[in-house]
Design goal:
mainly beta; 0% helix
Length: 70
């Protein structure tokens, strides 16, 4: 769990933020976030971590799972 603050990330498609995700400080996971966006062949998905809490090893052992349904 994040210590001393939240983990915050932006899910982007082609550089445009489509969802903001937060793992609250002290929690093991973020609430499930459903994003309905069209993703086309050649689009670029990125996840930008913008905050990691304030521990000695901020953001360590972070796993992210993205499920895409057609």
């Amino acid at each position: 769990p994040p210590v001393g603050g939240d983990i915050v990330a932006d899910l982007k498609v082609n550089g445009v933020t489509v969802a903001a995700l937060t793992v609250p400080g002290g929690d093991d996971e973020a609430p499930e976030t459903v994003v309905s966006i069209p993703v086309l062949s050649g689009d670029r998905l990125t996840l930008d971590i913008t905050a990691t809490g304030a521990s000695i090893t901020p953001g360590s052992d972070l796993s992210v799972f993205i499920r895409y349904e057609v």
